[in-house]
Amino acid sequence: MKNDTLQQIKGGLIVSCQALEHEPLHGPILMGAMALAAKEGGAAGIRANSARDVAVIKAMTGLPIIGIEKQIGPDGRLLITPTFECAERLVEAGADIVAFCARSNHPREMAIGDFVRQVKSELDCLVMADIGTIEDALVAEKAGVDLVASTFGYADTSGGAAINWELIKAMTEELGVPVIAEGGIWEPQEACQALELGVHAVVVGTAITRPQLITKRFVAAMQSLKI
Questions:
Q1: What does DSSP say about strands 155-157 and 160-162: parallel, antiparallel, or unpaired?
Q2: What CA–CA distance (Å, rounded) separates 94 from 72?
Q3: Which residue has the higher pLDDT, 157 or 151?
Q4: Exposure on the CB side of residue 10, measured as CA atoms within 13 A
Q5: 72 pLDDT above the threshold of 90
Q6: Which of 48, 157, 175, 180 has the greatest number of CB atoms lying within 10 Å of its CB?
Q7: Structural domains in the chain (count)
């Protein structure tokens, strides 16, 4: 089953269908519809936040799902699948892959290796590490993850997030597990370039599923013209 999931997403586009509570498209029905539209467009998989959204999206699309659970910690920091209980909820809802933040400065209740071992042994699912640096990626691989994604490795530019090509290249060259390109991908040619570098699959979110930010980019570009 795990190999089937990896084969299903290989060379494909995974669409991140997430909306935070303050955003217009927040809610499982709207995200389910977004995911279904992505499937009709040819998406190979979906990345979704919360067990509720995962369950609805799985029922509506049947596609492989990367599940995460976002929480706000006591200090106000955003946490990504910080506990085993989070992972358990996601898998019970239908997630095929559980993703968690593997950045070195991310708060967690247990060591990365212990978390990965418990999830894989008790939930029988694939585990993906969301990283920000090649050092994070190497630590995650050593801990036993099945995939590593460049989720937090994007570069901040005046035009917003941009893909970090140096990180993608380092990951494909130095890691022995499948690499997922994610973060700052705006154009189809960038997704193609990532595949050419050897990534297993590509995740795109904002450029497809956050219309308020897509609109903002167009407006900003038009307003910058001196006409």
A1: antiparallel
A2: 23
A3: 151
A4: 9
A5: no
A6: 48
A7: 1
Q: pLDDT tens digits, residue range 188-202?
A: 999 999 999 999 999
Q: Which domain holds residue 62?
A: 2-223
pLDDT at site 137? 98
Task: Tell me which residue has tokens 């959204």.
Answer: 53
- Per the listing, tokens 């919360």 go with 50
- Please give the model's pTM, rounded to 2 decimal places: 0.94
CATH number of the domain enclosing 121: 3.20.20.70
Report which of 149, 151, 202, 209 is spatially closest to residue 13, judged by C-alpha positions.
202
Q: Looking up tokens 């050593």, which residue turns up? A: 142
Ranking 58-62, 70-74, 88-92 by mean pLDDT, the lowest is 70-74
